[in-house]
Write a structure and sequence with these properties.
Length: about 400
């Protein structure tokens, strides 16, 4: 038996005005997900424990079977693991997004125009983060390049006793009330303000502006956390696992859990990602001896943050056709038995442009037993099924058949 998780990040939604009050999952053409829902178990599961923020870090850890109230130390430490930055026990890691802010003279009066700086390329971003590091580093503070707009700040002896806001939670809002608060907040804000002076006239940004693209004219600091410690996935569940994702966070979770993280050329975390390559990589690892693979697709989440309903719908359709459908066909024609869990980590509603903690719809399909809900895959039918779990960690045990 092979075990597969297809994780459509932020795939669940609320009613969308562009779709006449229906959700993305209602209107998307997804024959493979619908088939597996009708022939499998459909239900709702709460992936974000009470008291924790609905981030992809918490939610994906939960889906992977980890109790975040016991093991979670913050988002950025997981990303540090992905890019090979080893944290000391007294290091605090922060996410340092490259963002686009409006051009008011006073920093606090600016508006968050784009939390991703127009999905800036990794090559461009690397130049900008190097410039920030050159100007702002100290003996205890350093910046490290990540992927696209996602980067890392490490502060030796820093503090997590601070209130910081994810930039994707404040799209189109003035940043005034979302600036750092708490211990060391003055220093964090100082770095953000100074970064604007470094970045706004940088040649990379001047070129982007000339090309009609959004400049990455500031860093935005958030996602604080200390050195993580996760039990290995194999020790926890008795099975070796592989993870496929374009996102540093998910790769970092894989590294911390001692899972095999598979890189796919052209995987970028948007609806233009290499879905075919991800699906082929998943099939290859299963055919080459692996029994478990976790395929993470960021595209629906990114579209949710951008308020882009048509492309969120397209993202779901591409996941259905190019990943779920491909694996269903390829495993089926080889006569390989498998169980597949299809779900989001959290909803990212188009109307809110940010994450919420609502329970998410899941499908658990077993190719050896096609008796199921009889219902297509969407939020309303998942609620209608009457199946609900208030602990997201149970999903991995259910998938693997662990009592």
């Amino acid at each position: 038996m092979k075990y597969i998780v297809v994780l459509g990040d932020g795939m669940a939604d609320y009613a969308v005005s562009e779709f006449d009050g229906k959700t993305v999952l209602d209107v998307a053409e997804k024959p493979n997900m619908d088939y597996m829902s009708r022939c499998g178990e459909l239900g709702l599961v709460k992936t974000v424990p009470d008291g924790l923020k609905p981030g992809s870090d918490v939610a994906n850890l939960s889906v992977m079977g980890y109790d975040t109230k016991k093991c979670y130390t913050g988002r950025s430490p997981l990303e540090a693991a992905s890019i090979g930055v080893k944290l000391a026990d007294n290091d605090i890691a922060f996410r340092a997004n490259l963002v686009t802010l409006s051009d008011e003279e006073n920093y606090a009066d600016k508006t968050m125009i784009d939390y991703s700086a127009g999905e800036i390329s990794t090559q461009e971003a690397d130049e900008l983060i190097r410039a920030v590091e050159a100007e702002l580093h100290t003996d205890i503070i350093h910046y490290y390049s990540g992927v696209s707009y996602r980067h890392l700040l490490v502060w030796t002896g820093g503090s997590t006793n601070v209130t910081l806001t994810p930039p994707h939670d404040i799209s189109d809002r003035k940043i005034t009330e979302y600036l750092p608060k708490g211990e060391n907040s003055e220093k964090l804000l100082e770095m953000m303000v100074k970064s604007e002076q470094i970045l706004k006239n940088h040649p990379v940004n001047q070129k982007r502006i000339a090309e009609g693209k959004r400049p990455a004219n500031s860093i935005w600091i958030w996602g604080e956390g200390s050195k993580p410690s996760l039990e290995s996935f194999e020790a926890k569940f008795g099975i070796k696992g592989s993870v496929i994702s374009a996102v540093d966070l998910i790769k970092g979770i894989a590294n911390c859990a001692q899972m095999n993280s598979i890189d796919v050329e052209g995987a970028c975390g948007t609806y233009e990602t290499n879905f075919d390559g991800k699906a082929q990589a998943a099939l290859d690892t299963l055919l080459n001896g692996a029994d478990f693979v976790y395929i993470h697709m960021e595209a629906p989440d990114e579209c949710g943050h951008q308020g882009d309903a048509p492309h969120k719908k397209l993202s779901v359709e591409l996941i259905d056709k190019k990943v779920v459908g491909f694996l269903r066909e390829e495993l089926g024609k080889r006569g390989i038995d498998y169980r597949m869990l299809i779900m989001p980590d959290h909803p990212t509603p188009i109307s809110l442009k940010t994450h919420v903690s609502d329970p998410v719809p899941y499908v658990l399909y077993d190719s050896t037993s096609e008796k199921g809900s009889g219902l297509d895959y969407n939020e309303k039918n998942a609620e209608k099924s009457g199946i609900y779990y208030d602990d997201g960690t149970v999903m991995m045990k259910k998938l693997l058949g662990i009592k």
